[in-house]
Specification:
Elements: H1 3-13, E1 19-24, E2 27-32, E3 35-42, E4 45-49, H2 52-61, E5 66-67, E6 77-81, H3 87-101, H4 104-118
Antiparallel strand pairs: 1-2, 2-3, 3-4, 4-6, 5-6
Length: 119
């Protein structure tokens, strides 16, 4: 599956509303309310927003999926090896990035929808 199609499919399945496609640094990206969530660095690498405290934990715990280059040291973004990461982990990262810019109303609506699905 095309990497951007995969991201959009996972975001829709997770009910991450309001995500729009765009470009960032000349590559396909995802934004929420005009703010950066993620971009394809290349066909096999995703750059995604990530709080610095989570980033350090992910880099230490699962280096087979997550990494950074010198350019991203100190920035709230992490690099993901798309062919290696499973959909559940990738969805979790998308949700984390989405929550950084989602409105409280959107977060509450998603929680309600997910609760109805699991009931």
């Amino acid at each position: 599956m095309d990497p951007m199609a995969r991201l959009l499919h996972l975001a829709a399945a997770a009910r991450l509303t309001g995500i729009e496609q765009g470009t960032s640094y000349g590559t396909p990206s995802l934004k929420l309310r005009g703010k950066f969530l993620a971009r394809l660095r290349d066909a096999e690498t995703l750059v995604i927003r990530c709080p610095l405290e989570e980033k350090e934990l992910l880099l230490a715990a699962e280096p087979q999926f997550y990494f950074q280059t010198d350019h991203y040291i100190g920035w709230p973004a992490i690099l993901i090896r798309l062919p290696a990461i499973d959909d559940a982990r990738l969805t979790a990262r998308l949700e984390s990035a989405w929550r950084l810019h989602a409105s409280k109303k959107a977060i509450a609506a998603r929680q309600d929808a997910m609760h109805l699905i699991s009931a």
